[in-house]
Amino acid sequence: MDSLRAALAEVVGERFVTVDADVLAARATDHTGRYSGQASALVRPADAAEVSAVLGICRRAGMKVTVQGGRTGLEAGTVPEHDDVLLSTERLTAVGAADRENLRVTVGAGVTLAAVRRVASDAGLLFGVDLASRDSATIGGMVSTNAGGLHTVRYGHMSAQVLGLEVVLPDGAIVRRSMRMGAENCGYDLPALWVGSEGTLGVVTAVDLALHPVPEFRVTALAGFAHLSGLIDAAHVVRRLGGVDAVEMLDGRGLDLASARLGFAVPTGLPWYLLVELAGHRDLTGELADALERCDPDDEPAVGIDPAGRARVWAARDAFADVVGLFGPPLKFDAALPLDALAAFVADAVALVASRAPDAVPILFGHVADGNVHLNVLRCPDESVLYRPVTELIRDHGGNIASEHGVGAHKRNYLDLALSREDIGAMWTIKRAFDPDDYLNPAVMFPDWLRRPH
């Protein structure tokens, strides 16, 4: 370790290599607090050249490397399992000027989502992805997991925002691929391969991001429903509206907790609530009101037109970030389900939780227009009683076990519930072509059976 530390320090400087046990222990524990590993060193390179040199040192020394960004992921994707060297992108924070003519900006992988949104706003533009963890989630990590968020129904996942990437490959090569024109068709679409690869095919060091014009008008509404089937019917209606910007499902159990335990001023009294936001270059309030009237909600919708009013409506959705942590780290499921299968899945999942963990509290929310649902099971210290049964339930209802948080280390041994072994084998072939030593993010994505001797 002394020689490895010295070699790393020679590249990045003494200040940016850490072997302190307490620091490493904190860095080896994930955002949820549920999953921990072990690391040998933390190194913080400042640019792509330093990343390349660090990877070369680790590869030659036979050391595994785990890449870390803002560490806000929920699937243990940054938890080391092999006494790894932790490679943090936190110093890759260069931010270019927003290009208002071509609607783009170039940022380092360590730049936070909040910083990108500020740069876009200062230029009179917006960035299409937003997350509750915006103040700490980094662009590199969001690219690696193909993050979604609150506005995917309009702008799509991170894959739709990426115009180009700078990536350091496992062999140390620095590759830069950027689309400068709208009609380029030369060879493989490598950025599409790297987005969502969760650091298994290289370290993202810089990203060219698409920006968007700011709509002149916004209107937000929150409507309550006595039955989930009514909310789903309403979601079918509103997601077809022009200018739809967000369609969120909120569990009344979560709002009850937000009101009773946290003192949030949120609506209560009904089992389900639907939040809808429309945005455009004209006032869409009338269209939203007409659509909600056709949906026949079970209370009078709350509507926000000005910024303060919209913030009051969005407070109901924002409350879930605090609610899910009320009883310690929750057990989280990030699923994509066909909208028409959602009600049956929710009923079966709630019944399963009640039978396997009677003291647990299931809370659901998500981007329902895309079928993206987050099931958080509160007060469930032993995940073994629920994780596989609920994951199999997702599969049995025609869903996918990962929607916007990726596979990470946590779901790697459940991957065959979503993909065939042939699919997984094809991905493994690509991984080994880029990283034959399997030293970069080795705990992530691929199931254990692939790495066992045959």
TrEMBL record:
FAD-binding PCMH-type domain ranges (all copies): 35-214
Keyword Flavoprotein: yes
One Pfam family here: FAD_binding_4
Keywords: FAD, Flavoprotein, Oxidoreductase
Single GO biological process annotation from the record: respiratory electron transport chain
UniProt cross-references to InterPro entries, sorted A to Z: FAD-bd_oxidored_4_C, FAD-bd_PCMH, FAD-bd_PCMH-like_sf, FAD-bd_PCMH_sub1, FAD-bd_PCMH_sub2, FAD-linked_Oxase-like_C, FAD-oxidored/transferase_4, Oxid_FAD_bind_N
Entries under SUPFAM superfamilies matching the protein: FAD-binding/transporter-associated domain-like (SSF56176), FAD-linked oxidases, C-terminal domain (SSF55103)
Source taxon at top rank: Bacteria
Cofactor: FAD
Recorded GO MF terms: FAD binding; oxidoreductase activity
Protein family according to the UniProt entry: Belongs to the FAD-binding oxidoreductase/transferase type 4 family.
Protein name: FAD/FMN-containing dehydrogenase
Organism for this UniProt entry: Rhodococcus koreensis
